[in-house]
Structure to design on (747 residues):
């Protein structure tokens, strides 16, 4: 804000974060309304009138003045809590996140709370219990023939008091109780629920039947030494190297001190098997937080974490906001996974917030992955994170051989080369299982020549053109160059120009025709929508009979397929030439993760990657080298292009039903940014405004403006000033605008 606003009212004012799209807090006067539980304080929920609505917000500060006049200030209608809802660390994390991600603070708080709390339900309910009335002779008479009622009465008398669950356990019906109540033989009472007791610290000497290998031992000892202060560890271990075992040893150590552990896993990684593994190992209560819970279950799990009765809290992205009474450790499994970044609304990165939170709480955090993100590797190199390595596969030492099949001059059958089909037949004939993977990443199709392998690339940039359908054209997302869609290959004049795009269903049909005697199991979001369908397919696979597994990303994680001996990556090229600068990193991670499914048992595995660009450096570095060497090359490329982690990005998006509106709006924003950066001598690079690679979505045209700087601070200064400006402006109703700080994908 340009001018410091003057105080017009002096006196206690509550600054309330109200769930509204406005990026600010609102002032209210404290009053003791009749329903009020206690004096308003920071961190409690209050009910306020907001425009014509009544909303529930959180008090984020108690100030002693307001820039509004007293008559403009409304008193709160009620305060809903007697104590702050969130822990201090989570409260501060949310304020920080609202500021960092430039998201309305009220919506940030709302996103962090279970729906029940958001809707004003008390944190703790009250529970009913019943006691018997004073005995009298009339009682005997009234019950002389009611044997069941008599039994219940003597049960209650014997117990002193009974709760609903006790009645249920003893198999007395509610109806029976109602009859006794009506006769005044039983009295009803209610009592406010209290916080559940903290979990019982685990016994230290509990036995593990697994003996750690040398690398695991080093990892465990190194982390153990730092427990009790903030430190971030990058546990870099190949699939099956025993990362989870390392997490569990450290967790054990903290749980035995009565400290809680928060474990975040990717969306598709949180399976009943994962939860079962932790439950099996630890005797304390394990609660899970994920999208499959109903609101009552979520509230219960959340409260147990907050009260400290749950020892382990395991969840997906949003579980990072769960308050913990006694935090001891945070673990992020598969830290590179893109599901840790929220892609709409409040666009936070749970991994990055987890690191902030750990620092805030003064505890250790472990980021685990077989294929760490370039960001985390960079942080490990610069000394921000401690790098720990697990290079040995536990159990039988079998790693898969990777091979790239050059298909540039092959006639392909629905995406399969003759060679690949031949190898698949061989593995099936040996009664093994085969996994066929299709990389769905890289939304924008690539234009290339089927005859000579030519790829349509931008002259100004070291990047490929993206094909746009409407109107038919090619465009560079890096410099804005555009041209008409070529009708023939400039290199060999062939008219065989194609874009890629074969889906799983089409391949399923094809494979069923090719392998008539072998079951083909398709595993993707569509085929697993129905409950238990995934479990059923996994069961069939685990029976070990020859079969072909065909699937997407879902296959890349967590599952162990001991009988798979061949993994085929159908199309590496869409990742290789993705419009997104993270395309190659993601492709590499996916291939390494998928490859990790093969050869886990005592059968050696083979990994085949089909590509028209077999000699491409990225593919070669993947197949001939380790992931570490692959990521090293990727980091060098990022450095020379000054892309993250060597710079910081923010993507501003605008959507409108007409392209022109969105463009015009972002043009205005771009001009503001230019003026700001000139005026404050903050060099901020701008790319765009440009139509988004996915130009139209859900009937809206999308335009984006990418901001890039070397220092986060500069970007933050610009964004704060931009948001202040936007608050004062009347946004055109037809345009939807969003800010994505540290965007994961630019599509
Ligand atoms: P990751 O999480 O790295 O994929 P896990 O921790 O799941 O690996 O370990 C893979 C398998 O190896 C599990 O069945 C685990 O019980 C077992 N395991 C882990 N560490 C050891 C060890 N030191 N010795 C023998 N087996 C181990
Ligand atoms: Zn050609
Ligand atoms: Zn270009």
């Amino acid at each position: 804000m340009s001018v410091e606003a003057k105080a017009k009212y002096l006196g206690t004012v509550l600054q309330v974060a109200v769930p509204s799209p406005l990026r600010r807090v609102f002032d209210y006067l404290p009053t003791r309304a009749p329903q009020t539980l206690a004096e308003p304080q920071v961190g409690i929920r209050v009910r306020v009138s907001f425009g014509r609505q009544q909303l529930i917000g959180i008090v984020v500060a108690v100030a002693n003045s307001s820039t509004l006049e007293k008559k403009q200030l409304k008193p709160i209608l009620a305060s809903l809590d007697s104590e702050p809802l969130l822990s201090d660390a989570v409260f501060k994390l949310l304020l920080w996140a609202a500021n960092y991600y430039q998201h309305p603070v009220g919506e940030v708080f709302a996103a962090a709370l279970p729906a029940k709390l958001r809707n004003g339900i008390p944190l703790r309910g009250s529970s009913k219990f019943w006691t018997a009335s004073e005995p009298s002779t009339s009682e005997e008479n009234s019950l002389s023939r009611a044997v069941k009622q008599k039994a219940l009465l003597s049960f209650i008398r014997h117990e002193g008091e009974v709760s609903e669950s006790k009645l249920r356990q003893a198999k007395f019906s509610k109806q029976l109780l109602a009859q006794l109540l009506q006769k005044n033989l039983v009295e009803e009472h209610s009592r406010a629920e209290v916080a559940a007791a903290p979990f019982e610290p685990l016994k230290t000497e509990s036995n593990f039947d697994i003996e750690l290998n040398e690398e695991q031992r080093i990892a465990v000892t190194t982390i153990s030494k730092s427990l009790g202060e903030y430190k971030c560890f990058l546990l870099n271990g190949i699939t099956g190297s025993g990362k989870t075992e390392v997490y569990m040893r450290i967790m054990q150590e903290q749980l035995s001190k009565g400290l809680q552990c928060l474990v975040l896993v990717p969306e598709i990684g949180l399976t009943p098997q994962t939860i079962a593994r932790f439950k099996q190992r630890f005797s304390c209560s394990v609660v899970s937080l994920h999208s499959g819970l109903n609101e009552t279950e979520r509230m219960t799990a959340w409260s147990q974490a907050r009260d400290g009765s749950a020892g382990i809290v395991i969840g997906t992205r949003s579980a990072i906001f769960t308050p913990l009474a006694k935090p001891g450790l945070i673990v992020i499994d598969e830290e590179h996974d893109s599901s840790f970044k929220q892609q709409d609304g409040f666009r936070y990165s749970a991994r990055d917030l987890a690191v902030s939170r750990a620092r805030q709480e003064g505890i250790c955090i472990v980021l685990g992955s077989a294929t760490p993100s370039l960001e985390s590797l960079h942080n490990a190199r610069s000394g921000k994170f401690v790098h720990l390595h697990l290079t040995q596969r536990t159990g039988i030492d079998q790693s898969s051989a990777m091979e790239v099949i050059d298909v540039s001059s092959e006639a392909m059958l629905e995406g399969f080369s003759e060679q690949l089909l031949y190898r698949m037949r061989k593995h099936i004939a040996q009664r093994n299982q085969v996994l066929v993977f299709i990389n769905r990443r890289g939304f924008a199709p690539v234009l290339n020549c089927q005859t000579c392998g030519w790829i349509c690339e931008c002259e100004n940039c070291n990047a490929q053109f993206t094909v746009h359908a409407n109107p038919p054209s090619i465009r560079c997302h890096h410099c804005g160059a555009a041209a008409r869609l070529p009708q023939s290959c400039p290199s060999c004049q062939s008219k065989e120009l194609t874009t890629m795009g074969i889906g799983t269903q089409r391949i399923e049909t094809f494979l069923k025709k090719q392998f008539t005697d072998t079951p083909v199991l398709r595993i993707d979001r569509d085929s697993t929508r129905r409950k238990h369908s995934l479990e059923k397919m996994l069961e069939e696979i685990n029976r070990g009979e020859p079969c072909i597994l065909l699937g997407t990303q879902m296959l890349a994680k967590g599952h162990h397929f001991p009988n798979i001996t061949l993994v085929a990556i159908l199309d590496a090229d869409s990742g290789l030439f993705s419009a997104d600068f993270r395309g190659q990193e993601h492709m590499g991670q996916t291939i390494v993760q998928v490859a990790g499914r093969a050869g886990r048992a005592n059968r050696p595995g083979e990994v085949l990657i089909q590509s028209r660009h077999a000699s491409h450096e990225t593919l070669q570095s993947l197949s001939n080298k380790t992931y570490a060497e692959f990521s090293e090359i990727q980091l060098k490329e990022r450095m020379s292009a000054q892309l993250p982690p060597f710079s910081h990005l923010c993507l501003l998006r605008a959507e409108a039903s007409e392209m022109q509106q969105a463009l015009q709006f972002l043009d205005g924003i771009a001009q503001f940014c230019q003026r700001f950066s000139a005026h404050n001598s903050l060099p901020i690079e701008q790319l765009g405004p440009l139509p988004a690679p996915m130009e139209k979505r859900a009937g809206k045209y999308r335009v984006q403006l990418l901001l890039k700087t070397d220092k986060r601070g500069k970007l933050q200064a610009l964004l704060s000033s931009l948001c202040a400006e936007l608050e004062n402006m009347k946004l055109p109703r037809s345009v939807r605008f969003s800010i994505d700080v540290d965007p994961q994908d630019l599509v």
